[in-house]
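FIELD: query
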Amino acid sequence: MPTRLLLCLALALTGCEWIIGDPTATADSGQSSEVPGTDGGDPAAADASDPGADAGPDAGHNPGNDAGHDAGSPGPDAGQPACTHSIATPLKEFHYDPVANIGIFTVSGSGPGDIWFGGDNAIYHSNGTDFVSTASNTGLPRITGIRSLGPSEVWAAGYWSIQHWDGSGSWIEKKSLSSFLYGLWAGGPNDVWVVGNYGMVEHWNGNVWNDGGVGDQVALNAIWGPDSAHLVTVGNTGAGYTNASGSWATVDMQITATLNAIWGFSGTDIWAVGNGGAIVHRDSFGWAKATSPSSENLKGVWGACPDDVWAVGDKSTVLHYDGKSWTQVPANSFTWTNVSDPSLETLYGVWGTPGGAIWISGSRGLVLRSGN
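FIELD: result
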């Protein structure tokens, strides 16, 4: 087989998941010091009333994981069919509601007609053209991680709670906890992982939640892996951990900035982004800091192909990686309908489909999408 084709297959897209976590954290605390605010997603200090603020991980809970691929997905270096680049431009305003003032912190889907958004006590669904609330009440937690495996298999995690959607018309709480949850990954309906404050890791195996943690009192903001045996979770002050050895072990992320989101294509092609424009990348040699064109806090990352990766953050920051370098996409190139000053908006989540639209969620009900 030609070498060029082998390289293409090796770099090809696998199923993945990004999770937006609470954006910043202190160096000496096990909880994130900056959380999506109740003022529509603008960061605010963590509520001192958070039960997780004065206690370590609840030893009675299990690590949970958010669906990014089928439970039988290939290992970290398995080849996949050649990927198709996303429809990148133009980015345009799809939804905005400053009156309701609901921050939308995370977005995920299973296809172009199945997109889910999680935010302040609310979860929305879009078929690609509409934007419908599926749950909005004071009983629903602030959702900071969501993953759709399909229209009838969706997992969401947030403050104190893990929720499940089976297509019956309502969200069901699968587990209640005493601390904040930030990141979620799933390899299938019976393989769900959730991370949060104080190094907490929860895992659903289809029967029970298994409680665990990384062993350090650090806020974990995001989790991703090519499969459940090769997960990486990142968090405050450059914290990184992997379960590749069978138990959670420290990873040197080569950076001290808080990392808020992670996404990858294989075990040797993973991106993580964070505060101060921080971007780090893992290849076959390990983790290394990448050159970033922005100093803004980055909150989300997703890619369709190894040379088609997107990151978003404060002040409507959108960055793109073309396989060689990261560049900034000017906010004044977007089509804005109701937003008068994009620099006042924070972008939290990004997701899309290879060959399809890119979806970006943000503060005050803001949703951007690419394509027509």
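FIELD: remark
The mean pLDDT is 82.
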